[in-house]
Amino acid sequence: MSEEIVSRLQERFTEITPRESLDWPAVNCPARQWADLAAALREEYGYRFLMDVSGVDWKEEAPRFMVVYHLFSTRKHAYLRVAVACPEDKEPEVPSVVKVWPTADWHERETYDMFGIRFRGHPELKRILMWEDYPFHPLRKEFPLAGWETELPDREVAEQTGAKVIGAPMMGGPFVAPDEGPMSEREPRARDETWTEKNPKPKK
Amino acid sequence: MAEQKHELAYDTKIEGDIVVTRADAAINWIRSHSMWPMPMGLACCAIELMAAASSRFDIARFGAEVMRFSPRQADVMIVAGTVTYKMAPAVRRIYDQMAAPRWVIAMGACASTGGMYRSYAVMQGVDRIVPVDVYVSGCPPRPEALLDGLLKLQKKVAGERSVQQLRVPESAQAPHSSL
Q: Which chain A residue is nearest to residue B137, measuring alpha carbons?
């Protein structure tokens, strides 16, 4: 069953290759063939439900960025995973599939927000989680969990309060709640509390 | 009243309709015993805030049951939950719209310090944008803890020099430190 769909797709779309997968059938698809493949998958192969769109940052590998789509067929009760690599590393871009699956709209916006991958032909490609002027893409590998300093979303409030978006202090984190002890002493706290914002971590 | 043997300190027969007190005490008594909260519910702390308002914990016992979703009518903003950077300007704007005198309770670890969210998206304590009067610890705090925080705030308000502050416009008062 799983092999069947991959080989059937390969007969028609010559550029796609099977992709290693532990559960459901999966294929790699080059960005230039993705629009055609998507339309065919929905209309002819019954994958009418786009479950998820997400991105992958492979850091030093080339191509660096990849968009992964999870499809589901309610008739056949079968999943299919399609990985589309972005040809460009500097300005990653793949074709949008909003016209095929309208649900891709917000998913693609999120992927754009978090990875900076652009979706060609998206009706309104703007950030969905972070605010519009935020200069970074938080799920890229070079971006730390604590974040980098930048301006608040609202200039007026920023001027009024002097507050900024700061790198979160990671003082001895991650922050965990102890399993044992009285509730009053089970606040989430760092395992190593010897260093703080004011006393920086001693360098080894 | 007339039948009671021990009379209260206030005796209508002697004093008529007059009560003697300090203006500060009277104003603070009025202010602290009917604090109308602005429920700034942003995360799970808001659920505990709702519990505090409901019958079992009954915040009405302390005169703070009138939750007002219009900042114009509210006295105390209870910031209950995680303040993201994206939400922070809205929190500040709502605070700005509240009429003075106004107070802020930071409810829970997130509102106080960012809590467990040491991340690029979460403001590390709402006191970076609004002056906080009372911090309530807990993740989330139990309703009793919030009630305790409210009592602490009442105590704080009772000690304020309200008459003096009436004369000074708020813009001239000491600005809060912006960290």
A: A187
Alpha helices in chain A (DSSP H): 2-12, 31-43, 104-115, 155-161
B117 CB near a chain A CB, below 8 Å?
A: yes
State which H helix or E strand residue A141 sits in. none
Give the pTM: 0.80
Output B92 or A194, whichever has higher pLDDT.
B92
Question: Which residue in chain B is spatially nearest to A150 when comparing CA positions?
Answer: B120
- Print the SS3 string covering chain B: CCCCCCCCCCCHHHHCCCCCCCHHHHHHHHHHHCCCEEEEECCCHHHHHHHHHCCCCCHHHHCCCCCCCCHHHCCEEEEECCCECCCHHHHHHHHHHCCCCCEEEEEHHHHHHCCCCCCCCECCCHHHCCCCCEEECCCCCCHHHHHHHHHHHHHHHHCCCHHHHHHCCHHHCCCCCCC
The domain spans of chain A are 2-120, 150-198
Partners of residue B117 in chain A, C-beta under 8 Å: 168
Overall average pLDDT of the A191-198 stretch = 71
Q: Higher pLDDT residue, B166 or A3?
A: B166
* CATH homologous superfamily of A2-120: NADH:ubiquinone oxidoreductase Nqo5 subunit (3.30.460.80)
Give the residue-averaged pLDDT of B41-45: 93
